[in-house]
Design goal:
TIM Barrel; disordered C terminus; binds pyridoxal-5'-phosphate; Lyase, Ornithine Decarboxylase, Chain A, domain 1; eight-stranded parallel beta sheet; 12 helices; 379 residues
Length: 379
């Protein structure tokens, strides 16, 4: 077996603490959004459910089925599917489905009929970002058809969802417009007899800033992983540490060029160490020339253009040994760069850094046991 070289440590305890904080903040109306392999964090569904999440949200039916296969019994909502998706399987596996159009509703009904069970659906209104969800003009006919098929027994309308465009800035007047579109959509639905459906509008930013207006359930993704798009709190804990190990190192003289195009040229004699992690593993190439890593307790720059499989760190007077561990990013407690810094270096958002980490890097889940448990465990 190969020794592990680069490792992605997933701090399950941090995710649990963030989850518990959102459970408190939302009055126990927390849907944990675990799309894109839980924002790159891997298998953490059972942890978030133990920590207070009541349900799980994902985009595709495939993601939802994978959670069911992993033993998740809680409600799961899938909100992004084409009419060709396997709705029969979704209904059989008790997966809730978001419905943004009459075409998709018809496809869900066909799946429910084949499954011989009613589909649990959440009608999805576009409140203002012209992305997914039903255009406001088409909402009343969608509600009318939903009521009709509900009466026939093939669906149950259990939710009404919307998603906000500008909630990271609570002062943006768009928030009030979108809350109004959503409130009107709920009123239209209830006039069509869809009254018990639970409304949900807010994601992380709208929940932290209050811009979501306190409708029903809160769909929280980024915040569970310590990412706050609204920059309104520093209470959330980052949950990933990426480390790698030195393959080789060498001393080079002034004038030595490094990497493709020789973008970096050493101005003095220095030491270079090679790390076997590159843009093929999700390190953004755009961060070339700006990014740093933590080496022997201090920040050192990555130099030259990032390669697919490797990067080079300038360690100054230190000659590293093959196998020495280097921290690429982490929560920041020991001075290592954070995901937020990497995002700034790559001119992107933290979400993109964490979701692009490649499958070559193993995810290693760590939980720090509370001290009152360790005694019992030792006995
Ligand atoms: C991703 C997503 C969320 C979660 O958003 P965060 O900002 O990560 O909390 C909620 N709802 C929908 C529809 C989404 O696509």
């Amino acid at each position: 077996m190969q020794p592990t070289v680069s490792e992605l440590i997933v701090h399950d305890d941090a995710i649990r603490e963030n989850t518990a904080a959102f459970a408190r903040l939302t009055g126990d109306r927390l849907m944990a959004v675990l799309k894109a392999d839980a924002f790159g964090h891997g298998a953490i569904a059972h942890s978030v459910l133990e920590a207070g999440a009541k349900s799980i949200g994902v985009t595709s039916i495939d993601e939802a089925v994978a959670l069911r296969d992993g033993g998740v019994d809680a409600p799961i909502l899938s909100w992004l599917n084409t009419p060709e998706a396997d709705f029969e399987e979704a209904v059989r596996r008790r997966i809730d489905l978001a419905v943004p159009s009459v075409e998709l509703l018809a496809a869900v009904v066909r799946g429910a009929v084949r499954a011989g069970l009613p589909a649990r659906i959440h009608l999805h209104i576009d409140v203002g970002m012209a992305r997914d969800g039903c255009a406001a003009a088409d909402w009343a006919p969608l509600c009318a058809l939903a009521r009709e098929v509900e009466a026939s027994g093939s669906v149950r309308v259990v939710g009404i969802m919307g998603h906000m465009s500008c909630a990271d800035d609570p002062a943006d007047p768009q928030n009030a417009r979108e809350r109004l579109v959503f409130a009107n959509a709920i009123r239209t639905a209830s006039r069509r007899g869809l009254a018990p459906a639970v409304p949900h509008l807010a994601a992380t930013a709208a929940t932290l800033t209050g811009a979501g207006g306190g409708f029903g359930v809160h769909r929280i993704g980024a915040g569970l992983f310590g990412i706050d798009p609204s920059a309104s709190t520093d209470l959330l804990k980052p949950a990933l540490t990426l480390t790698s190990r030195v393959v080789s190192s060498r001393e080079v003289g002034a004038g030595t060029g490094v990497g493709y195009g020789l973008d970096f040229v050493a101005s003095d004699r220095t030491h270079l160490a090679l790390l076997p992690v590159g843009y093929g593993d999700g390190l953004p190439r755009e961060a070339s020339g700006r990014a740093e890593v933590l080496v022997r307790g201090r920040r050192r720059p990555l130099v030259g253009r990032f390669s697919m499989d490797m990067v080079v760190v300038d360690t100054g007077e230190d000659q590293l040994q093959p196998g020495e561990q280097v921290t690429v990013f982490g929560p920041g407690a020991e001075g290592e760069p954070t995901v937020a810094e990497w995002a700034a270096w790559a001119r992107t958002i933290p979400h993109e850094i964490v979701t692009r980490l490649g499958s070559r890097i193993p995810r290693i889940h760590r939980t720090i046991e509370p001290s009152n448990h360790t005694q019992g465990a030792a006995a």
